[in-house]
Here is the input.
Amino acid sequence: MNKDDTPELFSVIATHYDFLNHLLSFNFDRTWRQRLVSLSCFQPDSRILDVCTGTGDIAIEFACRGAHDVTGLDLSAGMLARAQQKIEKLNLATRIKLEKGSALNLPYADMTFDLVTIGFGLRNLPDYARGISEMARVLKPLGRLFILEFSLPPNKLTYGFYSLYLKIYLPLAGRLFSGSARAYSYLASSIFNFLNQKEVIGLMRESGLRNVFCLNLTAGVVTLYSGQK
Ligand SMILES: C[S@@+](CC[C@H](N)C(=O)[O-])C[C@H]1O[C@@H](n2cnc3c(N)ncnc32)[C@H](O)[C@@H]1O
Here is the structure.
């Protein structure tokens, strides 16, 4: 599948996306996003951009914890519509603004945000280096970028079980619950084909970010990266 088609694919699964995320990750997805927000050390008045916001869970987590100025950006109208419904239901519309746009060409001036985040979005971009350098560009000096992304566990045994989960369970559950085996086969292959931690860190440094580090979450099936401008 061509990566330029992924926003379309996400629009198809938007209504089931949150339910399947929680089901397929055994609810770990909530704790991964919470960990990102906890580590970000944001202030209530921080200007925060969540790129590839999807149904808005990272933006919502920031706003629920007191952030006043959060922007969520995504290319998929279907995912943004679902995010808007959730934001209104939680009375967070004064704190979170949603915008349709591309992560590869962010519609913001240089040095606009104190904090930029992207959760499970980088892997879907056709050009990872461009995505990271765009996020670095819109950060203010000393601002921080946080990337949450799937990764492959370093332990061989865990890797074996995880491969079976990705190759067999994920497409099957995706077909049963969302009606789109294609979307969930894509998810598995995008995880296998994504960069390793060294490569992501290399791209972050090439974009001018410093103090870069990464943390393995849940035995390394997810990695949280951070770098400072
Ligand atoms: C796996 S979802 C992640 C959603 C959310 N961040 C989360 O934590 O659940 C990936 C999102 O990236 C969006 N996306 C893919 N390519 C994009 C692009 N070039 N620019 C902006 N968003 C994009 C998709 O529409 C989708 O909503």
User: Anything to note?
Assistant: The chain has a mean pLDDT of 91.
